[in-house]
Amino acid sequence: MQKTKPRILEKMWNNASIITKILITFIIPIILILGINISVYVGVNRMIERIDEIYLSNVRLNELSESLGLLQSSVEEYLKNKTSKALTDYYRYDQEYRDIVAKISETTAKTPQGYMEQNIVNQSKKYLSVAGDTIQAKRGRNVEKYRKLYEEAEVLYGDLKTCIYSLNNEQFIRNTDNYYSLLSTFKYMEMISIIILVVIAFTNITVILILTRSLMAPLVRLSEAAGDVAEGNFDVVIDDTDAKDEISVMSKAFKQMTMRLQTYIQEIRASMRRESELKEHELMMENRMREVELINLQAQINPHFLFNTLNAGAQLAMMEGSDKTVEFIQTMADFFRYNIKKINMDATIGEEVALVDKYIYILNVRFTGEIHYEAKVDEDVTDVRIPSMILQPIVENAVNHGIRNISWEGHIALSITRDSEFVYISIKDNGAGMLKEDIEKILTGNASKIAKDHSDSNGVGMSNVIERLKIYTGRDDVLSINSDGPGKGTEFIVKLPLTKENGNV
Questions:
Q1: Which residue range forms the structural domain that includes residue 58?
Q2: Domain ends where: 163, 189, 223?
Q3: Which of 102, 276, 365, 370 is most enclosed, with most CB atoms within 10 A?
Q4: What is the pLDDT of residue 189?
C-alpha cells in the first residue's frame, strides 16, 4: 500500500500538464507560507489576549481604587455641604463601585490572590453599608450618628485602600513574570516560524530547480535532435516516456515525424532505384531493339535480292510451261515478299500461320515431302496481332534442331488456343529433343552459335524472336521450352497476353 501511493502520485504528476506542474510548485509553498503566517497571527493574538488578561486584574484593582476614592470624596462633600449635586454624585459613584465589586466577585478564584480579592469584596460591601448609613444619618440630621459612622467609614476606606494597593502590587509582580514568560514564548514562536519559512523557501527553490531541469532536459534533447534532423541525420534517438505533458506530446510527435520522414526518404530512395532500374531496362530494351532492327535490316538484303531473282525465274518457268516450278517459285516469292513487307511491322496470327504453311511447302518440295506438319488454330485468334516473323523462325528451329537428321519420321504440330487473358501458341516436334543447357542458352539469348551452324536459316534467330516478343508484350515470360531430353522431342510455347493494343480486349 505504501508503494502504491507514490506510484499513483508519480503517475498523476507525469500526466499533469506543464501549467498544472508550475501552479502546483508555486501554490503549495504559498499555501504553506500563508498557513504559517495565519498560525503565527493566531498565536500572537492569543498571547496578546493572555497579556491583556494578565493585566486585567491590575486594571480592575486600579478602577476599584479610583472609584473608591471618588465615592469617599462624594461622601465627604455631601457631609460638608449637603447639596443635591453632592448627593447625586454619591449615588452615581456608589453604583459604579458596586458594579466593579460585582465583577471582581464573579472572577474570584480559590487562590491566595483570590482570597485577598474576596476580602476586598467583603470589606467593600461593609464600607458601602457604612457609607450609606452615614449619608442617611446626615440627611436625618443625626449629627452624633453620622460622625461616628463617618469615622468608621474612614477606617474602612483606609483598610480597603491598603488591601487594594497591596493586592495590586502582588498581582503586578506576578503578571510581570507571566509577561516575560509569554514574551519568551513569543520569541521562540517567531524563531520557529522563521526556520519553517526558510525551510519552505529552500524546499521551494529545490523543487523549482528540479522541475526546471525536468522540463528543460527533454527540450534540450529535442533541440539537439532537431539540429541533427536539420543537418540531414534522421537516425535520432528520443527516449520514450509515460508522461503526458505538452513536452512529452511534442517529443512523441517529433519522433513520429522523424520516423515518417525516414520511411518517406526510404520510399523515395526505393522509388529512385526503381526508376533508375526502369530507365536502365528501357535503355537496354532500346539498345536491343536497335540491334533487332539492325538484324532485320541485314535480313532484308538477301530476301530482297532473292525476291527479284525468283520473279525472273517464275516468268522463265511460265514461258517454258512448267506449272509446278511456277507454283514453287511463286510460293518462294510470296514467302520473301512477306519477309520484306512485315519485317518492321506486326501481323495477325492468321498471316503468320499462312507464312508457316508456305515455309513447310517449300521445305517439302526441297526434301521430297519428308516433313509431316499439322496445324490446329482456334478461329477466335486469327485476328490477334503479334510481331511479324515469330512463328516461322520457331518452326524453322524445330526443323533444323528437331527433326533434321533423325532416323524416324518427323512430325511438327502447331496448336493455337486462348483463354480470357492469354493466347497460347504451341509448336511441338518429335525430334531429337534438347538438353537443359541448350534450353537455358536459348531462353537467355546465348544460342547464337546454334543459329550460325545452319546456313539455310532465314536470318531471324530464336534470340531475335524472344527479344521482339519481350519488347512487344512488355513481359519476360513470353516463351517457354519443354523437353524430356534427347530423342523425346521439344515443345515451344508462346504466351501472348490479350490487350487493347493487339485488338483482343
A1: 4-223
A2: 223
A3: 365
A4: 74
